[in-house]
Input
Amino acid sequence: MTNPQTAAYDPLARLLHWLVFLLLAVQFGVAWTMPDVGRDTRPEGLIAWHLSIGTLILLVIVLRLLWRLSNPAPPPPATVPPWLQSLSHLVHFLLYAILLLLPLMGWGNASSRGWDVTLFGVLPLPRLLAQGSHFGHALGDIHGVTATILLIVSGVHVLAALYHQFIVKDRTLARMLPLPGKAD
Output
């Protein structure tokens, strides 16, 4: 019988968690190596990859949110104090919000530049904003700042998981590990 205080996330939640992690790792690698986006930049090469990966992240995070709404997270270990649970909820809320907003900002910025956004050249997406939209152009700058905020919030998330694993030793990290049965 599974102890509810150490119950693992279900397999799909784990898969989606680690898929988002991998996609973000690739996305940040592409973002740091792609050319700067300027007035005459074309959505080719790494920029096209960045747009496609961002679209995929958006699709996966929407799926993850829908799954999470219908399949709540298992309760935290009893040793986690209420204030830490509240902080955890805040960090998770920020992660979900940023992971939704960041690709939408990029999509809006691409639309304002007149770029077509597709999922790896296969699934075209409609324009979110009119070409030449001042708001859409501003979203490009906000997108960059928000990406930095995502790195910081993700770092807090990782540090918290490591804190639970190596200091508190309450099996919180084991609940999300991709290997089944590690927290059961």
